[in-house]
């Protein structure tokens, strides 16, 4: 299984893929809600995204980050 996150200024979109070809949208979330800057001034350190397992165990074989800058 592959997991994919696509982000822009407004949203994070979360996808998964099991066949290596078709990404299936799991859901999305607004980027603004992931920062504490709105409640504590001058506290923004960036958004951290990672993998974890809950209520069980998992093995991650690879983690890769690809940055693609949008056309301006």
Characterise this structure:
- With about 70 residues, the protein is mostly beta strands.
- Helices cover about 0% and strands about 30% of the residues.
- It contains no helices and 3 strands.
- Strands 1-2-3 form a 3-stranded antiparallel β-sheet, with no helix packed on it.
- The protein is globular.
Provide the fold topology.
Layout: E1 2-7, E2 11-17, E3 24-30
Antiparallel strand pairs: 1-2, 2-3
What are the main properties of this structure?
globular
State the gist of this model.
The chain has 72 residues and is mainly beta. The protein is built from no helices and three strands. Strand 1 (2-7) and strand 2 form a beta hairpin.
SSE arrangement, N to C: EEE
Structural class, by secondary structure, is mainly beta
Residue-averaged pLDDT: 79
The helix tally amounts to 0
Our estimate of the beta-strand percent is 25-35%
The low-confidence runs, each spanning 5 or more residues with pLDDT under 50, are none
Helix content: under 10%
| Largest sheet properties | 3 strands, antiparallel
Compute the number of strand runs.
Answer: 3
